[in-house]
């Protein structure tokens, strides 16, 4: 994971936790949006790792 993705991930996670604590629920619309954004980043990073492993194996 590159540094920018890690910083983005940690920033969004912090926002999500702050929002959930403020709203006192994980089911709030804003919390769910942040959670979905986090999911997208995680999936992107995992796909990049898989692609990197495939490139490494073929070299």
Distance between the termini: 21 Å
Outline, from the CA principal axes? elongated
Helix tally?
A: 2
Strand content: under 5%
Helix content: over 70%
- Pattern of helices and strands: HH
Instruction: Specify Rg, calculated over alpha carbons.
Output: 15 Å
Number of strands: 0
**pLDDT averaged over residues:** 92
Largest sheet: none
Please tell me about this protein's structure.
This protein has helices spanning 3-23, 29-58. The protein has one domain (3-58). The mean pLDDT is 92. Helix 1 runs antiparallel to helix 2 (29-58). Helix content is 86%, strand content 0%. It is elongated. The chain has two helices and no strands. The protein has 59 residues and is an all-alpha fold.
What are its keywords?
Spo0E-like_sf; mainly alpha; 2 helices; 59 residues
Task: Describe the structure in brief.
This protein is an all-alpha fold.
What is the secondary structure topology, with strand pairs?
Elements: H1 3-23, H2 29-58
Protein name: Aspartyl-phosphate phosphatase Spo0E family protein
Organism: Paenibacillus abyssi
GO molecular function: protein dimerization activity
